[in-house]
């Protein structure tokens, strides 16, 4: 069989992972990225066991784990700083094969990009059209055109590929709250445990990175597009500066100009992730809120599943239909689950907050972990322990 080719639109985590997975199966790959370079800025990322299984299948698991930090314990606290629930990372590893690993997004992106031939990476290549060229597909972009057997739209929440080929699909939907992300400078005594603290219509979370730094994130319910009266850093101090330790110290250690804020969106369910020889992947197919920390994890799952379905199958259209069947139900269920968790975390009516916190405090840790098994227990297709649990959470 002659070497087959794939054009991947979008050089984020999902797009690069798909390129690596296909490249290692003998495909010629080309990754088109609209930005002038392949990079991520300013934020951490949580890789749960399912994502690490995917990275192991790519041959990058050990590389990525060496770049990240593993905390002993993580959990949820109330506004007074009291623990509502705690989970030991060792228990995650025992149940699901890997602990939770946290690292800088740029480090993960670099590890993926380094696993590809340099000439397959095309920055500054904004896509303008995807069209049928007879025996191949043609992608028009700022640096010319690319011809291939399959096109993968991995270009994010506001995907140009999705808009062009799925004009009937609903656009992104605002989740009702905005989010801040930041990384502290090195701390002499970084927190020994990670946590998400629930307030009323607000949350603040933190987790360790290597080098004494801490990745922090926060949310607040407010209208889409509303701007702070002052800087985003000042807004964080106003909202969270008096919250329980170590939050004030974490804010004090955060560079003032490093805070990122983005309104949070999700993608309404699509009827298919596939149209002919074009497939959507990651946020382009199923953008979700970050409440489960599964956005990038699901993109990595997508990448492995896509490559598996295409592997050795000459009929690309049939292979992509298999990918759609394997991924759509699962990812859309996880999107709904993340939305429900976000709604709970953003509760603001005092009686509802009291009920939420009480329920979380009384829930056994075993039950919490058991409820996460359908999400975290995923293994790559073709793995001997893979079962139908990969089809839905």
Furnish the topology, listing elements before pairings.
Layout: E1 5-9, H1 13-23, E2 28-32, E3 44-47, H2 49-57, H3 61-67, E4 73-77, E5 83-88, H4 89-96, E6 101-104, H5 105-114, E7 121-122, E8 127-132, E9 137-141, E10 144-148, E11 150-153, H6 160-165, E12 173-183, E13 194-198, E14 202-208, E15 214-221, H7 232-240, H8 247-252, E16 260-266, E17 274-275, E18 278-280, H9 283-286, H10 295-310, H11 316-345, H12 350-362, H13 365-376
Parallel strand pairs: 1-2, 1-11, 2-7, 4-13, 11-18
Antiparallel strand pairs: 3-6, 4-5, 8-9, 9-10, 12-15, 12-16, 13-14, 14-15, 17-18
Quick recap:
The chain is of the alpha/beta class and 393 residues long. The protein has 13 helices and 18 strands. The longest helix has 30 residues, at 316-345.
What does this 3D model show about the protein?
By secondary structure, this protein is of the alpha/beta class. The protein is 36% helix and 24% strand. It has a 7-stranded mixed sheet, sandwiched between helices. A 6-stranded mixed sheet has the order 7-2-1-11-18-17. Strands 8-9-10 form a 3-stranded antiparallel sheet. A hairpin with a 5-residue loop joins strand 14 and strand 15 (214-221). The two termini are 37 Å apart.
């Amino acid at each position: 069989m002659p070497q087959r080719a794939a054009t991947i639109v979008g050089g984020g985590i999902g797009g690069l992972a798909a390129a690596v997975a296909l490249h290692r199966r003998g495909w010629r790959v080309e990754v088109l990225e609209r930005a002038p370079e392949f990079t991520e800025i300013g934020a951490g990322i949580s890789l749960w066991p399912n994502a690490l299984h995917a990275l192991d299948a790519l041959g990058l698991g050990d590389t990525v784990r060496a770049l990240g930090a593993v905390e002993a314990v993580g959990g949820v606290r109330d506004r007074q700083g009291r623990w509502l629930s705690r989970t030991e990372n060792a228990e995650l590893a025992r149940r699901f094969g890997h602990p939770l690993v946290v690292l800088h997004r740029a480090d993960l992106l670099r590890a993926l990009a380094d696993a590809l031939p340099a000439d397959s990476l095309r920055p500054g290549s904004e896509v303008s059209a995807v069209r049928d060229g007879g025996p191949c597909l043609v992608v028009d972009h700022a640096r010319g055109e690319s011809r291939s057997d399959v096109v993968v739209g991995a270009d994010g929440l506001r995907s140009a590929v999705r808009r062009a080929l799925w004009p009937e699909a609903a656009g992104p939907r605002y989740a009702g709250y905005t989010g801040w992300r930041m990384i502290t400078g090195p701390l002499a005594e970084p927190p020994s445990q990670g946590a998400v603290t629930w307030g009323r219509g607000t949350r603040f979370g933190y987790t360790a990175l290597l080098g004494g730094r801490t990745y922090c994130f926060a949310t607040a319910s407010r209208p889409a597009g509303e701007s702070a009266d002052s800087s985003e850093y000042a807004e964080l101090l106003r909202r969270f500066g008096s919250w329980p330790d170590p939050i004030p110290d974490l804010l004090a250690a955060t560079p003032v100009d490093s805070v990122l804020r983005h309104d949070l969106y999700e993608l309404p369910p699509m009827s298919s992730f596939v149209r002919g020889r074009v497939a959507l992947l990651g946020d382009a197919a199923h953008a979700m809120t970050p409440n489960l920390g599964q956005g990038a994890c699901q993109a990595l799952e997508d990448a492995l599943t896509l490559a598996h379905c295409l592997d050795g199958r000459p009929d690309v259209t049939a292979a992509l239909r298999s990918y759609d069947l394997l991924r759509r139900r699962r990812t859309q269920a996880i999107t709904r689950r993340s939305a429900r968790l976000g709604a709970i975390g953003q509760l603001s009516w005092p009686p509802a907050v009291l009920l939420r916190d009480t329920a979380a405090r009384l829930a056994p840790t075993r039950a919490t972990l058991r409820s996460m098994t359908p999400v975290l227990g995923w293994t790559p297709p073709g793995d001997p322990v893979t079962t139908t649990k990969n089809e839905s959470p």
